[in-house]
Amino acid sequence: MDGAQTPNTAPVLILLGPPGAGKGTQARLLEEKNGFVQLSTGDLLRAAVAAGTAAGREAKAVMEAGNLVSDDIVIAILRDRLAAPDCAHGVILDGFPRTTVQAEALDTLLAERGQKIDAAISLEVDDAAMVDRISGRFTCGGCGEGYHDSFKPTARPGICDTCGGTDMIRRADDNAETVAQRLAAYHAQTAPLIDYYQSKGALSRVPAMGPIDEIAAQLDTVLSQRAA
Ligand SMILES: [Zn+2]
């Protein structure tokens, strides 16, 4: 230790991906392997309100008035949170930024701290395949066994392989139209962010239709390239 001021090199990642792309699973794996901390906007707000920090008290007043918490307040909460010791190995941001205005504010905050976005990772899915994957799901109401019309059908139509039950349950929001709408909404909301991080040279696109460990290996590759 020479006592010199060293730059803050804790990585800051953003994971982008539509519902069903496995974002939560990959974030947990990154936490376990690298000691990263995932920071989701909802958790950050709740924790700041519970801790009664200045920004947390402000957020509480805004929410109690039925209003949306402003970007400034979220940035203030994030500023406090990033300074905590457990964030020293790196963080994964979840749910923030959602707009390019927020992305710019985040860049400013990170620059104050000598940090930057190391990688904005977009988990890329094939929309049509995603609709097939999600919309074909059903479960046995008797024993909870999961099935899929194409990938894991029951041996005899409508009869559970495990318990012989015939009460099959399909979630209303797992139908093809709803899944397609969710994906379209995701793309519409995320496109400006993808463009933003692409223009900054921070975007990495990772195909996310394969097995979990394959996707995880590709994320590891992205991280090692970013660290180099
Ligand atoms: Zn069953």
How would you characterize this protein structure?
- With 228 residues, this protein is an alpha/beta fold.
- It has a domain at 12-36 and 89-217: Rossmann fold (3-Layer(aba) Sandwich).
- It is built from 8 helices and 8 strands.
- It has helices spanning 23-34, 41-51, 54-64, 71-82, 100-112, 127-135, 176-199, 212-227, and strands at 12-16, 37-40, 91-94, 119-124, 137-140, 146-148, 168-169, 203-207.
- The chain has a 5-stranded parallel β-sheet, sandwiched between helices. A 3-stranded antiparallel β-sheet has the order 6-5-7.
- Helix 1 (23-34) crosses helix 8, helix 2 (41-51) packs across helix 3 (54-64) and helix 2 (41-51) crosses helix 4.
- The radius of gyration is 21 Å and the shape is globular.
- Zinc ion binds next to loops.
- Zinc ion (ZN) binds at residues 140, 142-143, 145, 160, 162-163, 165.
Task: Give the tags.
alpha/beta, 5-stranded parallel sheet, 3-stranded antiparallel sheet, binds zinc ion, Rossmann fold
SSE layout and pairing:
Layout: E1 12-16, H1 23-34, E2 37-40, H2 41-51, H3 54-64, H4 71-82, E3 91-94, H5 100-112, E4 119-124, H6 127-135, E5 137-140, E6 146-148, E7 168-169, H7 176-199, E8 203-207, H8 212-227
Parallel strand pairs: 1-3, 1-4, 2-3, 4-8
Antiparallel strand pairs: 5-6, 5-7
Helix pairs in contact: 1-8, 2-3, 2-4, 3-4, 4-5, 6-7
Bound molecules: zinc ion (ZN).
Zinc ion binds next to loops.
